[in-house]
Amino acid sequence: MNNMVIVFVADAKFLQHTKALAVNCRREGQSCCDFLWIVPDDMHAPDVYDLTSRGAFVLPVRDRGFLMKFNLFDPMLQRWKQALFLDADVVVQGPLHR
């Protein structure tokens, strides 16, 4: 586990977008951070398994819509020293370490 994490908030509608963004973070952003997805607690098991099987962390929450972002203050994030939240519509064009 790293001391830095990149956090995404996604429901079923935005999950594929955030997965593509994670790949963008690795390739263009040259990131070796952990990834954490904050997802609705009723997210389908195959979608969640796809994330965890690749080494990502998943935080299921009861909130929906924009309220899911407030879970950025969940105690689970205390595992890491730094957290970077990226919205689904972000494009990484350079190294994230800057």
Tags for this model:
single chain; 98 residues; alpha/beta; 4-stranded parallel β-sheet; 2 helices; 21% helix; 22% strand; globular
Walk me through the structure.
The chain is α/β, with parallel strands linked by helices. 21% of the residues lie in helices and 22% in strands. It contains two helices and four strands, in the order βαβαββ. Strands 3-2-1-4 form a four-stranded parallel beta sheet, covered by helices on one side. β1, α1 and β2 (34-40) form a beta-alpha-beta unit.
**Dominant shape:** globular
Rg, rounded, reads 13 Å
Low-confidence spans: none
Assign a percent range to the helix content: 10-25%
SSE order: EHEHEE
**SS elements, strand count:** 4
Arithmetic mean of pLDDT: 84
**Number of H- or I-type helical stretches:** 2
